Each structure stands twice: as structure tokens, then as C-alpha cells.
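Q: How do we represent a protein-ligand complex in a form that can be generated cell by cell?
A: Start from the inputs.
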Amino acid sequence: MSLPFSQIARIGAYTLKEHIKGGKYPLVLMLEPLFRCNLACPGCGKIDYPDAILNQRMSYEQCMEAIDECGAPAVSIAGGEPLLHKDMARIVKGYIAKKKFVILCTNALLLKKKIDEYEPSPFFTWSIHLDGDKEMHDHAVDQQGTYDIAVEAIRLAKSKGFRVQVNCTVFDGADPARLAAYFDEMEALGVEITISPGYAYERAADQEHFLNRERTKKFFRDVFARGHGGKDWTFTNSPLFLDFLAGNQTYECTPWSMPLRTIFGWQKPCYLLGEGYVATFKELMEGTDWEQYGVGKYEKCSNCMTHCGFEGTAATDAIRHPLKMFGIGRKGVKTEGPMAPDVDLSKARKAEDVYSSHVERELAKIKEADPEGFKRVQKVA
Ligand code: SF4
Ligand code: SF4
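Then emit the C-alpha cells for the protein with iron/sulfur cluster bound:
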């Protein structure tokens, strides 16, 4: 369970400094500079936009502004498929020049073709979307052969000296034994693993939600138990976040720790819940009523145990209780015995049917800027 020392030291120093200052601070900028993708995974919430929006790109300048505005020490670039953005290599270089850690998330279909536009750096990591073994992954993305392409890309990137991790989202119904075997495969390939349960976009907090939460924790205990409390594998996740997944920590989320910037602006309140967009990071931080969100506060949050909501909490806990964190790193995650009490979901405010007008607003902007082009796009769509 380790990250390169340079990352730990730099991000640790930033976190400590911000923690001492008090107040809210971001750890990782989540950037989605385009929604276009070369896959069409069932259930993907990013690609179901009109063509006029799928054709939009955040410019190099907008991408640089986003990191300057929020000041996070790291940026995770996703989409859509970032390698479809013609300025992506320049954007990555721009961030590295600012000494930001860049995690470039890709489905790897274009990686072989594009890899020579990038250079290995301690500040740069390829993050390959790989949701399990060959059968699991090809099924998840609904295209045969994608697992083999991704593994070939991993080998190529490693042979060229790049740091590589896989990004694995776990959904309900996954088999712990198969996932553990997949982690063994990744360890043998020499890649790190970023793991997170998927966010269930459901509205009501009922008994089923509670059971889902319980199932998630039991599932991760079952997986980690097959790898000596997770010690057999190299995760990029923090030990305390893994401990939380296994039901050993009672955490509230830190929704501003991984803020999302897309072509629509900054998403309120977090990476997972889209309840509006604002133009600046300052507006996001100062204009969001954070008390309205979180597990136990809002129905839409009831099932959330994702890394973008809770890694920030784990980081704060690590500052407060470093010995606890080192203990888990050394001994592994506890996979037996009673779990920590969970947050009471019964008083969460009802899910709101938030009418999101951002698509209409964005289409109107495109129409105003280029009426003829807009007509052409509409005809094709
Ligand atoms: S690869 Fe990612 S962005 Fe593309 S369709 Fe699949 S989930 Fe969506
Ligand atoms: S619990 Fe809610 S507010 Fe917090 S990260 Fe999850 S979805 Fe976002």
C-alpha cells in the first residue's frame, strides 16, 4: 500500500499546511475537458449529450486557469476520453510545468498511437480504466477485446518508463474472489490499483440503500481478506480509505476535496452530484450550502462511499491520527470483528428533483457564437 515518496511528501506537506490554516481546501482537481468518448459503456453518465456539447472542449488556457483557481496539488483528467482532445499532451505538460501531479485517465484504446506525445515524469501517471478481469471488463464496457488492448497498453507504457495504475470501479454483484484474483494479476504486471465502489445514482434512502451500504463493506472485507488485509496489493488509495471501505471507520464525506471542472463550469456540490454549475471555484466554495449534503443529510448521498467523497476525510484523519494510519499500512485492513457504527440515514432530507438547465444554457451559448455551425450540428444529430 504505497505511493511514491515524492507524492506523499509533497501532497502531505500541502495537506498539513492547509489543515493548520483551517478552512476548506481541495486535494485533487477533477477535470473533464470533454465528454466525447470512443466507447459507449452502458450506464455511463458522461456521453449522453447532444452532439453540439460532445463537440465542446475546454481550451488549454481554461485547463490551466482551473488549477490556478483551486490550487490543488494534483489533477485527475478524465472525460469522455481525454486522448481525443487534440491539446491533451500540451495540457499535461502545462500542469507538470506547474509541478502538479497529473493522473491521465484513459480507456487505453488510443494509448499506443498517442504515447510518444508524452514523456515519463515523477509528476505523471497513466490511469487505465480497467474494471476487473477480461470477462468483467469487456462486459462492463460492452466491447470485446478492450481488456487485451488495455493490458497491451499497460505493458507498453511500463516498458517506456511511465508510472501506470489501473482505475477499478466496483459495482454491486461483483465476485470478491474474482476481484482478488484480478488484483493479483495487476500486482504481477507491476501496476498500482485505485479502487472505489461505484456511486449508485438512486434517489430514495430506504432499507435497500442501507443494505447496499452494508453489502459494500462486507464485500471489501471479503476482498481484502484474500490479500492479507489488502497488503498483497499496491493501492494508490490511502490505508484509512481502504479501512473505511471495510467498515472500520465512521466517516462523513469531504465533498470539496475533489472538485469537478467541466465545460459547464464547476459542478455543485461534488464530483458525483450535479445540482448546478458556477463559473468560478470561489463561487463553488462560498456559494454552496455544504451542510445540505453528505451521508445522513441528503437522500442522494445515502449510498455514497466513493474515493472522491471520502479520501479527503481519510487524509484529514491521517493528519490527526498518523499512528492509526501507519498501523493499518503495516498490519493491513481489519476484515473480521464488529464494524464501526454507520451514519444514521433516517433524517436525511428528501432527494430534490433539481432541474438542471446547464445543457440548454450551453446549447444556447453555442448557437449564439456560431448559428450556422449550430444548425449543421443539429442536422447531423
Ligand atoms: S470509457 Fe469512460 S467515458 Fe467512455 S463511455 Fe466508458 S465510462 Fe464513459
Ligand atoms: S456523500 Fe454526497 S456530497 Fe458527499 S461526496 Fe458523496 S455524493 Fe457528494
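Strands lie at 28-32, 74-77, 101-106, 124-129, 163-170, 192-197, 260-262, 265-269, 274-278. Residues 201-211 have pLDDT under 50 and may be disordered.
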